[in-house]
UniProtKB/TrEMBL annotation:
Sequence ranges assigned to domain GIY-YIG in this UniProt record: 2-31
Organism the protein comes from: Candidatus Jorgensenbacteria bacterium GW2011_GWF2_41_8
Protein name according to UniProt: GIY-YIG domain-containing protein
Pfam families: GIY-YIG
Length: 31
């Protein structure tokens, strides 16, 4: 299953969007 996401980094406030199969891994990469 793929997930679409739009997240804001807690480090620099940048917004990222995309899709991934591993949502938890992607959140860790952006924060």
């Amino acid at each position: 299953m793929f997930y679409n996401y739009i997240i804001e980094s807690t480090k620099n406030g940048e917004i990222y969007s995309g899709y991934t199969e591993d949502l938890q891994k992607r959140l860790k990469e952006h924060n």
